[in-house]
Amino acid sequence: HLANDLGLARGTVNKVYDALARDGLVETAGRHGTVVLAVTQGATTTTDDVAAAAEHLALVARQLNLSESATHAALSRALLATPRLPPSPPPTSADLGTRSTRS
């Protein structure tokens, strides 16, 4: 339903769900739904992830024909609304083995 609601292809939505699951942000159970997981210190993100998210934000802003100032304002509001997380320790090999992904 999400793909139809957003006017996107199902494959695109599935890729997003796969990426979120890979990053440990959601857990999927096929037709039984998807659960958003609590943000933990174990989340592994890099500056490359921020760059990719920024590129996606820029693309969405252009698709919506938003001005740069409106896009910056939206990002600023999102940053203010998101609490800072404490620095996370490096993942252990056990942590890396517990990530869930959909195939």
If you had to describe this structure to a student in words, what would you say it looks like?
The protein is mostly helical and 103 residues long. 51% of the residues lie in helices and 6% in strands.
List keywords for this structure.
103 residues, mainly alpha, two-stranded antiparallel sheet, 51% helix, disordered C terminus
Averaged pLDDT? 80
Structural class of the secondary structure composition? mainly alpha
Global Rg: 16 Å
Order of strands across the main sheet: 1-2
Approximately what portion of the residues adopt beta-strand conformation?
5-15%
Distance between the termini: 20 Å
Low-confidence stretches: 99-103
Q: How many strands? A: 2
Order of helices and strands: HHEEHHH
What layout of secondary structure does this protein have?
Elements: H1 2-6, H2 10-22, E1 26-28, E2 34-36, H3 47-63, H4 68-81, H5 93-96
Concise synopsis of the structure shown:
With 103 residues, the chain is mostly helical.
